[in-house]
Amino acid sequence: MSFDTIIKNGTVVDGSGLPKRVADVGIRNGIITDIGRLSGAKRVLDADGLVVMPGIIDAHTHYDPQLTFEPFGTSSCFHGVTSVVGGNCGYSIAPVRPADHDWVTKLFAKVEGMSPRVLGEGLPWDWESFPSLLETLDTRLGINAAIYVGHSALRRYVMGEAASERAATADEVAAMQGLVREAMRAGAAGFTSSHAPTHVDPGGRPVPSRHAHFDEVLALAAAAGEGGAGSIGFLARTAVQGYDAEDRARVVKLAHASGLPVVVQGMGFRPGQREMWDNQTAFLADARREGAAVFSMLRTQPFMRPFNWKRGTSLFDGVFHWRDIQALAPGERLARMKDPAGRTELRWALDNPNKDPEKGSTLPPPAMTALFVDRSASDPGAEGKSLAQLAKERGVHPADVMCELAIADRLETQFLWNSESPAWIEANGESQQNPHMIIGTGDGGAHADRDDGAEWSTYFLRSWLLDREHMTLEEGVRRITHLPAMICGIPLRGLLARGYHADVLMFDPTRIRLGKKQLVADLPGSEDRWQVKPEGIVRVMVNGEVIVENGALTGTRPGRVLRIGNTA
């Protein structure tokens, strides 16, 4: 037999959880045909000393806007991700009316922290319906992508401005159901919605999906279930608080109405919250007994988010005075930080973050014990210390430390939120053992204002599997490849097995690690974003073609739209 490619002498970890083995992988026409001792290929890739595993599947991203003008899903592709699922949290870029292009751009910029300038210059807007979006993407992709149809997009398309003001009528719900069925026939990944109080539009109003009665969410999930595959994504009102009884009942109803897995967010063991975690695991077990398959995205890397007050950050969206100074020009920001009355407000705000969703975002700010000075030209001695430590040493409030450093550095002090601690490692490790947790919440494509967490997979491989040996390499690989493929309904991906698409990651277990996080300006509009590239990831293949080699894009674009919903 003649192969297009043989990957030779690698340690094959096939994604099934079965023991690894040294073998060759044969690929023809983008499909894995053989694994064993092979010869006779147009191209041989030496994988001696490398782990050869399925390409990683990232079940929670917001890459759908970016992929219309940047086909590789950077930065996730550098970290071994070959398939992404976009359209999460109720936000998709289709269906969309031409008159709403600006509205959608501003919504993504506000809720998902994307750059309005990048979106404005990058989005080609050569689609309107959901099926036409998938057709457009299918001609452009370097990686594979599955896309949910989002609730806020559906409401805006059907209801116009009223989507941000009121509940839908029966006729409007029926029209949205028709659009969901159309999307599923075209291959949508399912349906997503958000009731999260942190999700507000550029005008400070709740996003459209938050104006929907739950019966509307249920009706649209049921329509998605008629597609026969995929999943439902739902971000509940009380997700941050651990899900109250009403939201738990709603999650089970969504599973029963759709017949699909329901993917939620926010569950997981956080340090000091044992009772909440035990309560969540009991709920997940109860849901399983009731025939509801409920999974939660689990962030398995610590928050490592740099920011400065010149560029701004969304980390303080729930701390109003800190949020508000970002609307000022840089000179005015400095003046507010220097002003005694302004300083008093900033101290108060840090001690009293917003908890009322009616007043705006309830995003908690970083703990001052986990907020560090990463770089300061004026005070190098502060580098590596937390604001809590510096405040204690200097006998002042943490807000004063942050202000004084920012003033001295002309707003360019680089702060770093790093949540890693022994308590976090212990709690997160326990969370990973629960079978309802989906490892790897990064939010790829979002949060250019802080970072999109695209490095989660490299952190998981290096820190959890190789260094801590928290679970076997085989089981860890299964959790980030075949398992998300099954939950999301993605066919013939996530395994290295005969008949499966040849999405492959090859990495050197002795060298794989994260590099330094830095600002890059590589998207339309030349606006910068945070990016961290890995070391030790040797090749990333999509459908049998190498798209990343030794950390650089090859330019080859073999990606496809992953059509999950079934045609009628």
Q: Structural class of the helices, strands and pairings?
A: alpha/beta
Span between N and C termini?
38 Å
Number of helices: 18
Q: How many β strands by DSSP? A: 25
Mean pLDDT: 94
Low-confidence stretches: none
Mind telling me the C-alpha Rg? 23 Å
**Largest beta-sheet characterization:** 9 strands, mixed
Tell me the helix content: 25-40%
Please state roughly what percent of the residues sit in beta strands, choosing from under 5%, 5-15%, 15-25%, 25-35%, 35-45% or over 45%: 15-25%
Shape: globular
SSE blueprint:
Layout: E1 3-12, E2 21-28, E3 31-36, E4 41-46, E5 51-54, E6 56-58, H1 64-67, E7 81-86, H2 101-111, H3 116-122, H4 130-138, E8 144-147, E9 149-150, H5 151-159, H6 170-186, E10 190-194, H7 214-225, E11 231-235, H8 245-258, E12 262-265, H9 274-289, E13 294-298, E14 304-307, H10 320-325, H11 330-338, H12 340-351, E15 371-375, H13 387-394, H14 398-408, E16 414-418, H15 422-432, E17 437-439, H16 456-467, H17 473-480, H18 482-488, E18 504-507, E19 513-514, E20 518-520, E21 529-531, E22 534-535, E23 537-542, E24 545-549, E25 552-553
Parallel strand pairs: 1-4, 1-5, 6-7, 7-8, 9-10, 10-11, 11-12, 12-13, 13-17
Antiparallel strand pairs: 1-2, 2-3, 5-18, 14-16, 15-16, 18-23, 19-22, 20-21, 23-24, 24-25
Helix pairs in contact: 5-6, 6-7, 7-8, 12-14, 13-14, 16-17
